[in-house]
Amino acid sequence: MDYFHYSENLLHCEEVPLSKIAQEVGTPFYCYSEKTLQHHIRVFKDAFAPISNLICYSVKANSNLAVLSTLFKEGAGFDIVSAGELERVKRVGCPGERIVYSGVGKGRDEIKAALEYGILMFNVESRSELLRLNSIAGSMAKKAPIAIRVNPDVDPQTHPYISTGMRTNKFGIPFDKALDLYTEAAAMEHIEVLGLDCHIGSQLTSLTPFVDALKRVLHLEKKLSALGIKLKYMDLGGGLGIPYEEEQIPPHPEHYAGVLMAELVDLDLTLILEPGRVIAGNAGVLVTGVEYIKQGEEKQFIITDAGMSDLMRPALYGAYHGLQPVVRRFGREESVCDVVGPICESGDYFARDRTLPEFQEGELMAVRSAGAYGFVMSSNYNSRPRAAEVMVRGDKFAVVRRRETIAQLLENESIF
Ligand SMILES: *Cc1c(COP(=O)(O)O)cnc(C)c1O
Q1: Which of 36, 116, 147, 202 is the S-S candidate for 2 at Cβ 3.0 to 4.6 Å?
Q2: pTM (two decimals)
Q3: Is residue 56 within 8 Å of 77, Cβ to Cβ?
Q4: Of 398, 415, 413, 405, the residue nearest 65 (C-alpha)
């Protein structure tokens, strides 16, 4: 469910035509719908309302301050993976007790900053990290609150680059080592063991891997309890998929919540979830201008002013994104074409061999489902300034991140 729709043949975000934003802001730009973000986080929160829970939106999916602020006002907490993300959630006023910190490579300064701010817990990913946390917390005369991220070794059946819960992935502690590490952690002077964590992957379209993982971690929780290690939090990470293509509809959050809660009844644990994509993905589009239509030997190329430096998902994962004309005209012929960017890489494409209505030079195209892992993964490759970001609220819009300038790109460089 999102608030992007055609009205009088113009693609709108809520009540604002995307063509109007393009006129004022130029292309390419990302456009986020505030109402869609609010709707997504509410549905998710409501689905888990029957049990004690904390929804920590995964900041890495889309970390724009306007997005974070919208979600924070709806009661979300945050899952962060760096000191930079910590700074962002501080800026929107999030208190420490609503922040969890994930990631395999937490640096010393990052750990210090998070301890200083008093976050809810660190999701620890290795024994070395645990030792480092204990030592830094000791030097600050504090206790570091932790969960251990275990790797439940289930196959999430998603793209290999976004599978994280298998034995061969770099994430988490191997399942059979977890008991020993918990015992060690519980004995550390500056560690407070609070929870158990797992996150098995992203863009999951089946509930089975989530349930398998939950069963495994609950089994571990029972063993810990028997050893006298009582947990307060069960963090199941994120990973619920979204419909990028109409043919592939992932489970609704209510269904997801239903099957997880069925396993959790009678347990005195607060459930933490770290949804990212399911909140932000379909709340954003990337609007790009068609620069050229080029007839190749075998097919037509539509060359857009946005490229893999703006939206990397197709190049990185072969990901599918819906493409639509911003101005709908009837009676367009359809043809099979490639939609490609201006970057000097053959991997720079948004669609390959896609049947699309005929586009003309100078037209606007919307790349759908670009709200998560879109702008956040953008780069300055080919010395291209990053796109503007816009948020719509009803019939109003605001630029929430100005388009970068070439001067800004060069700011930190000098000639030796
Ligand atoms: C990326 C990530 C998430 C969010 O995943 P989504 O698929 O966007 O919901 C949650 N937790 C951790 C630890 C992650 O790395």
Answers
A1: 36
A2: 0.97
A3: yes
A4: 398
> Burial level of 143, CB count in 10 A (0-12/13-18/19+)?
middle
**DSSP string of 370-390?**
-SSSSGGG---TTT-PPPEEE
For 105-112, what is the mean pLDDT? 98
> Residue 349: which H helix or E strand, with range?
strand 349-357
Q: Are 237 and 198 in contact (CB under 8 A)?
A: yes
Query: Is the predicted pLDDT of residue 318 greater than 90, yes or no?
Result: yes
The residue written with tokens 């070395």 in the block is 128
> Quick one: which atom of ligand 1 is closest to the CA of 102?
13
CA of residue 234 to ligand 1 center, whole Å: 15
pLDDT for the residue 167: 76
pLDDT at residue 155 above 90?
no
pLDDT score for 159: 80
Measured in Å, residue 240 CA sits from the centre of ligand 1 at: 9
Q: How far is the CA of 235 from the centre of ligand 1 (A)?
A: 12
Active site residues: 344
- Rounded CA gap, 231 and 273, in Å? 16
Instruction: Give the contacts of 176 (CB within 8 A, at least 6 positions apart).
Output: none
Domains of the chain: 4-32+281-410 (2.40.37.10), 103-273 (3.20.20.10)
Q: What is the pLDDT of residue 265?
A: 83
Q: Which atom of ligand 1 is nearest to the CA of 197?
A: 13
- The ligand 1 atom at the shortest distance from the C-alpha of residue 164 is 15
Q: Is the pLDDT of residue 276 over 90?
A: yes
- Please list, residue by residue across 233-260, b when 16 or more beta carbons sit within 10 angstroms of its beta carbon and e when fewer do: bbbbbbbbbbebeeeeebbebeebbeeb
Helix (H) or strand (E) holding 285: strand 284-295
Average of per-residue pLDDT across 332-350: 95
What does the H/E/C string look like for 190-218? CEEEEEEECCCECCECCCHHHHHHHHHHH
SS3 56: strand
How far apart are the C-alpha atoms of 257 and 280, rounded to whole Å? 18
Give whole-number Cα distances, 172 to 28, 123, 126, 150, 328, in Å.
38, 9, 7, 5, 48
Ligand 1 site residues (CB inside 6 A) read 58, 60-61, 79, 102, 199, 202, 237-239, 274-278, 372
* Ligand 1 center to 255 CA (angstroms): 19
Question: E strand or H helix at 287, and its extent?
Answer: strand 284-295
Determine the Cα–Cα distance for residues 81 and 191; give it in Å rounded to an integer. Answer: 20
